[in-house]
Amino acid sequence: MHYFLCGFMGAGKSTKLKEIEESNRFFGYSFCDLDEMIFKNEGSGFNQLGELIEKRGFEWFRSAELETLKNIWDGSSSWSALGGGALSESVLEIIHSREDIRGYFIDTDFDTCYKRIKDDTNRPLSKKSKFELKKLYEDRLSLYSQFKPLVIP
Which CATH number belongs to the domain containing residue 92 in this structure? Predict the structure, then answer.
């Protein structure tokens, strides 16, 4: 079985993934922060993921997300934290075509996300205005809300 966490930038997906891993409730599962894995695999010569994305572009990055997810989801049981924009049409197609993938939405309000990302130089999109980020948040909300809010007893 494969589980993933989705939500806007700064929602707390990576933090929640670490909490789930440290809980030891999912023995035998692999744990993957998608952004970290892409940087580990592709980031040679770059100081941060944001620098890599700015150099190669978002189209390249979305393609790298898709290929990395395919590899994760074709392997053993896993938990993954997806990037804020990883729910592309191609990714959703895979998710909806397989019964062994479950998604959870980290539902964090925009103002909290914005406070966490507004000065983060490792996030190219954080350079956008608050208004533009709020619109992006609202546009992505319908994608995220296709999945259950995360509740782990």
Answer: 3.40.50.300
